[in-house]
Amino acid sequence: MKRNVLIIGAGGVAQVVAHKCAQNNDVLGDLHLASRTIAKCDAIIASVHDKGAMKQDGVFQSHAIDAMDSDAVAALINATGAQIVINVGSPFVNMTVLEACIQTGAAYIDTAIHEDPGKICETPPWYANYEWKRRDACAAAGVTAILGAGFDPGMVNAFARHAADAYMDKVTSIDIVDINAGNHGRYFSTNFDPEINFREFTGTVYSWQDGAWQTNKMFEVGREWDLPVVGKQKAYLSGHDEVHSLSANYPDADVRFWMGFGDHYINVFTVLQNLGLLSEQPVTTAEGLEVVPLKVVKAVLPDPSSLAPDYTGKTCIGDLVKGTKDGEEVEVFVYNMADHKDAYNEVGSQGISYTAGVPPVAFAMLIADGTYDKGTMMNVEELDPKPLFTLLDTIGLPTRVRDADGDRAWNAN
Amino acid sequence: MKRNVLIIGAGGVAQVVAHKCAQNNDVLGDLHLASRTIAKCDAIIASVHDKGAMKQDGVFQSHAIDAMDSDAVAALINATGAQIVINVGSPFVNMTVLEACIQTGAAYIDTAIHEDPGKICETPPWYANYEWKRRDACAAAGVTAILGAGFDPGMVNAFARHAADAYMDKVTSIDIVDINAGNHGRYFSTNFDPEINFREFTGTVYSWQDGAWQTNKMFEVGREWDLPVVGKQKAYLSGHDEVHSLSANYPDADVRFWMGFGDHYINVFTVLQNLGLLSEQPVTTAEGLEVVPLKVVKAVLPDPSSLAPDYTGKTCIGDLVKGTKDGEEVEVFVYNMADHKDAYNEVGSQGISYTAGVPPVAFAMLIADGTYDKGTMMNVEELDPKPLFTLLDTIGLPTRVRDADGDRAWNAN
Lengths: 413, 413
Hints:
Two copies of one chain form a homodimer.
Chain A: E1 3-8, H1 12-23, E2 28-35, H2 38-50, E3 60-64, H3 70-80, E4 84-87, H4 94-104, E5 107-110, H5 135-141, E6 145-147, H6 155-167, E7 170-180, H7 194-199, E8 205-209, E9 212-216, E10 222-227, E11 231-237, H8 243-249, E12 254-260, H9 263-275, E13 283-284, E14 290-291, H10 293-300, E15 314-325, E16 328-339, H11 340-347, H12 351-368, E17 377-379, H13 386-395, E18 400-403, E19 406-409
Parallel strand pairs in A: 1-2, 1-4, 2-3, 4-5, 5-6, 6-17, 7-12
Antiparallel strand pairs in A: 7-15, 8-9, 10-11, 11-12, 13-14, 15-16, 16-18, 18-19
């Protein structure tokens, strides 16, 4: 059954979501795109038409919305007849958009955890602070809500589930490794909104080890990884959403997230942080102007979406999962490799936006056809990953496996 | 004859000037301190009294002034009966204060070249763009104006003159080396106003070599120096005021200025500059606020005057002068060494402010007693340096010499 889709947000990931929805509007129904600035929605929809991305004739409309206003979102869901909402707006709007879905019965999909603008790295598990408090309400209303359904979180949760199901009786550790071996050619840039990017790394690093939450500082723990395609790369123990659900579903396993950073990124980040330029608290200039330093840093950095045309190289994101099978120790690396240039050619975005934006469309398609329409709130590892991998093999993000038997497609014999 | 003094400015250097004038108010007369913010003047005068710095009972008054307003400065000169003006305000006010001196007949002393806020590193020689255009007017009015009478520029110009006069027939090169081997204990700080400090290093580096102006970029040319007390230190070819007068007075010599920088300073500077955070041109944040990045950097950095209590270590600033004497090649290093802690104990300031603030008071005393009251505009190397060295031996900045014959006081036998 076709279902109308409402996309919330008009940034780099929304651009990818819009293109992918258009490419699959024979499975999905009417498409709607809403953000605070309608001109950004119009620009995305224009790029969809420029690429001839609509698979078949259909509706793709833009709307202005304040997504912090639950009632306004609910009204837009009703007005558009949307049965699936893909929320790729700011992480500050998750709870109001989710509330609108509970109110209207629409399915809800997001790609990042809810954040309070005034807080950084709250008490773990993060999902328990906001989203999981509405789990019973979703179940009562029969609302399907799939949390963290981008790449990481998202695909990496499915990778962990697949490794556990297919290769082991017992899981002992899940190490998620995110390497961007691409080159944007600028002195320095973040790959998505600098304000959100830096917020990830200025607080405590939480990991789940030995059955408990452990804390570290950013860049305190680093390790070199040898990965398919991108080769040897250094990655650092980092805080990330998926650790906060995988630890609940695999409490006996250590769950860690590792983000790759070059020395140059770390140096720039360290200088800015030590000077106080990453602070979200305002300072006052000698002339009496009150200004948030982080917002000035954002203003001087490149717009991440401007990187796409010149971006070259590949990303490799995957899970190294260890455990036992029939009493023997086993390990498997489940991963995807994406190419920045290919992403730009297909949807006009760089690879980081591409990997985050394609999966939520796959989830929407699997809700539309009933496979994932469970009528309750779920994290991705709570769903059977095989339909997801099968679909993504055909729409842009194929899953691969590397273990003692070699490197191959996830479903190869 | 005692002469009343008006000090313009209320920053770190003004604090030193105020204390030193007070310590010598038997030679100088009534003291006056004026800046845009009268509270800053009051705080400095209070610190003078706290230290019991007034050598004898006398006047020390604060005034509010807009030093960009020549007529207002002239009125204040007349109202206070000031016969000497020590301008240690922003480098943007030199020309208006000089004009007020020409109008009233007061002697003029400054410690840094005039700057236009909207321009960086103009066409050399810099003095010809502003100050020297008023040389004839000073001579016609019989006004003594001593330009660049701090440490560098200032004492280093006198060091060059002394080396040339005392040790050689012909000068072939003058290398001024400024090393601060002190430690303020902060992650990063400039030693004076960050806005002025960074402006020195974001433009073209001019040096005078082979009888012509040469251009380099900042940090392009570095050299290790082995200096008295501070030992081996790396310094970089930099643009600086004194090169622009010494090259006119010693046109056959190469004239270069070398500023010491640690790798950490260079790294922080490089990151900030490459990101665009040192720009004096405004940017607009996502929220629509227009803000000059350099002013935000200034707002997050420590107030340089706050460094003084914890500052330890020494500065070494001097001239390595090479030439020939009776056909033989000779070289001599003329220098001063200052101690941050000693400076703080005496006048409540760190060593960088101390070395810049003591010399203009010595010049004022030598104008007051007639020695340097020449009734025209001069750069420091145009004056006989011996009275200056003799006075500074007693009031805080003794001059030393190191050459093939050893390391000794400038006037040792």
